Amino acid sequence: MDSIEINLLSNTAGTKKMLVDLLIGTVAAGGSVSFMRPLAPEMAAAFWNKSLQAVARGERAVLGAWNGEALIGTVTVLLDCPPNQPHRAEIAKLMTRLNYRGKGVATRLMEAAEAVAMEKGRTLLVLDTAKEEGASGLYEKLGFTLSGEIPDYALKPHGGLTGTLIYWKRIGTV
Fold first, then answer.
1. Rounded Cα–Cα distance for residues 144 and 126 (Å)
2. E strand or H helix at 51, and its extent?
3. Is the per-residue pLDDT at 45 higher than 60?
4. Each residue of 51-84: pLDDT tens digit?
5. Residue 112: pLDDT band by 50, 70, 90 thresholds?
6. Which of helix, strand or coil describes residue 27?
7. Which structural domains are found in the chain, ordered by start?
8. Rounded to an integer, what distance in angstroms lies between the CA atom of residue 78 and that of residue 12?
């Protein structure tokens, strides 16, 4: 996967279309990323419009993994925390195209997300993942610590409840 490049995404029509396609495909494949199946393109576009507007305001960073001209994965670093949590960032919406899973793309995205958070002066990362079919193994491999589980936290994209696992990781000094 040496040809994969990770960079910050901006609000361009081409990038937005690829993000919409990635989100719809992730949900269709059962990815628990806050949406239900089938995900309408308009709803996915509205999500990415809002997300990329937050990037422009400095409230988040959206990173993309590229194989040539193809967007094959993304992750978001949420930076807009309450005043008593300026040291914290949250990882959200880690997605990798199905045919690139298991090839290190998600690991590279997470390493880049951690670097962005550190550049922004953050020393603590938090995230959550679905208990069923989530990425807990990846997060634990990357040094995240499981805090616990909230049962029946959300609906799976195809229906039925799943718990969520809450993780944290120190990335700098306090």
1. 8
2. helix 41-56
3. yes
4. 999 999 999 999 999 999 999 999 999 999 999 9
5. very high
6. helix
7. 4-170 (3.40.630.30)
8. 20
